[in-house]
Amino acid sequence: MLICPQCKFENPNTNKFCQKCGTSLTHKVCPECSTDVPVNALRCHNCGTECGTVFWAIIAKEATGDEGVGRDEGVGEVTSPSSPSFPLPPSSEITFLDPQQRYQLLDMLPSLNNITEVEARVLDCQTYQISPIEAILGNQQSDMATPSVKANPIPSLAKLYIALQYQGQPGIPPIHDAWQQGDMQVVLIEDRSNWQLLLDLWQEETTSSLKILHWCYEMTQLWAVLEPVNCRQSLLELSNLRLDEDQTLALQRLYVESITCEPLTNSGEDAQAGTSLISEEPLTIQALGRVWQSLFRQSQRTQFGSVVHMLGDLETGKIETIAQLRSRLNEISIELEALTSETLPAINEKDTVVPTIVQSDEPEEIISKTDDMPTVVLAMQLSSLEDAGRTDLGRQRHHNEDYFGIETKIHKLELPKTRILQGHGLYILCDGMGGHAGGEVASELAVNTLRQYFQEHWIANELPTEDSIREAVYLANEAIYKLNQQDARSGVGRMGTTLVMLLIQDTQAAVAHVGDSRLYRVTRKQGLKQVTVDHEVGQREITRGVEANIAYARPDAYQLTQALGPRDENSINPDVGFFEINEDTLLVLASDGLSDNDLLETHWQTHLEPLLSSGANLERGVTNLIDLANQHNGHDNITAILIRAKVRPNLES
Q: Tens digit of pLDDT for each residue in 212-243?
């Protein structure tokens, strides 16, 4: 079946367009120039941008004796004009990895006659077609929390990826497809070959010692995950240690430990990047110490004193367990924090200190140093702040009562060894009510009143206080209320507006809202989170203890309980909150024309998450959101503001 990239509807393989939303199933849009490109093309024919879906293929001889074929009959062969099956001939004639001609080889393959494994990049020529592995995983995920893979007809190597994938480990590349024929197995995983090497960033002068400690800690986490499946060897290959866009440690692939723990490659006294640090002894955490020593040596970076002692204790066996190693990392981080506070200027904790090593699902939560897990904290700074906004009439309205405003100021200082960026952003979205010449007036008046207030009162390089933000909202309410009184408007004729407002100062943010316009936050680690809670009857009943299905069964469930303008300030109580931007974040302000019917909750992975990448165009992204809302909602005006804030550590070692 073909899965629509827009609405996720399951279509027959013969469909050229989604039968639910009409999206093309044979072409995709180039992210750079918006040209329609066939799904089986590696590059855009207009601008040359690589926009094909590429996977990393691992082709190996089966060592476990597991049986089963995860494909239709005949699948598993590598096709070429002259060689239809394994072993792979060293020929450039090979075009596809499978007889269905779905996976096109992008690299030449050597023969497997004298080696046990080869790797290659492959282009998925049927991007929207669900793979057998994806189908199995999808069915099992709907049936149980942790699937059993023992009975599945899939290769043994693939089972390792599946098992680890269900532990929620972003460091392990997700599996896409796999099959087996005879003693040969093929596994396709996410292609991370172009991700940044850990060694490259380790050796940069601007990389802080705290950041290095954090990577060491992440290795201990992965070690504990990989140990039960005998894949600790994956951490001992330096070229296998990669970083994602958040500079979080990730593996390019899994390496399974052999019984004798033989090295992957011949290693010299000074191993080069990509050299395995495996001895023929059974693996212990001493191997982690040798990896860290090699990273320091190859990066030509000086080891700081406490780390020298830790590595020595690791080598001599004084540190025997992962728990002891984590405890030592914690001690070093506390010591380093103390030294940093003595040598650096005073830091406003509210502005810069955020946790990075915590055992918590919420990145904002700071765990006490008395807990078992270490609490290395890294100061963060803004590295970029971008935004885009757009409003649309919708498909059923005759006039647009939505209004928005964006004001952004960026101050940038860049020197050979210093880069400072200060961002100051005000983002306001209002959804008016009261009909033509009513709702339009109210929403525009609210935006302009708030803009003027903060132009006068937001001067210093810090966020306004909660009292100041509330005062601004009350002034906007008063401006609309006075106009209602002046025009002697009454009942439903009284104009008003919702409000959602975001203020950003560097890595600090504040949000204020009245009504049902929303703020969402998207990060790679946390996914989509709704920050605001609608001011409506149904939500009010839920806060009173009524079950959601009963609360929203009321005919007035979606009626607003608060709005700016219809009544005086005593009738409104704006919600005001503060939060830190401590990882790359996409913030979305949305009117209900965009958020209705759980539209963003359903489509955030296709329309929001990709916008976290620096190369993604926000203007195009907001246009795509408007188009999506018109396809699935369209009953109301639609307004969206997107803000992409990217951050990085700002402490130097």
A: 988 999 999 899 999 999 999 999 999 999 99
CATH number for position 467: 3.60.40.10
Q: Can the peptide bond before residue 87 be classed as cis, meaning omega within 30 degrees of 0?
A: yes
Amino acid at 614: S
Beta strands 508-514 and 518-523: pairing type?
A: unpaired
Q: Is the pLDDT of residue 145 over 60?
A: no
Instruction: Tell me the pairing of strands 249-251 and 175-181.
Output: unpaired
pTM of the model: 0.59
Bridge partner list, 2: 11, 129
Q: How far is CA 292 from CA 8, 216, 285, 443, in A?
A: 44, 8, 11, 57
Expressed as residue numbers, the domain containing 151 is 52-190
Q: Which long-range contacts (CB under 8 A, 24 or more apart) does 615-623 make?
A: 615/31, 615/32, 616/31, 617/31, 617/32, 618/386, 618/387, 618/388, 618/642, 618/644, 619/388, 620/31, 620/34, 621/388, 622/388, 622/389, 622/390, 623/390
For 494-591, strand residue ranges (E) read 496-497, 499-505, 508-514, 518-523, 527-530, 575-580, 585-590
Percent of the chain with pLDDT strictly greater than 90: 46
Which whole-number Å values give the CA distances from 411 to 366, 385, 525, in the listed order?
30, 11, 28
Phi, psi of 472 (to 5 degrees): -65, -40
In the chain, the number of structural domains is: 4
pLDDT tens sequence across 45-80: 998 988 899 999 999 876 544 433 333 333 333 343
Pair (92, 136) in one structural domain: yes
Look at residue 57 and tell me if it is in a domain. Answer: yes
Same domain, 403 and 460: yes
pLDDT, tens digit (0-9, with 9 covering 90-100), for 33-52: 878 899 999 999 998 988 89
CB 497 within 8 A of CB 446: yes
DSSP secondary-structure letter at 604? H
pLDDT of residue 372: 42
For helices 322-343 and 209-226, angle between their N-to-C axes, nearest 10 degrees: 170
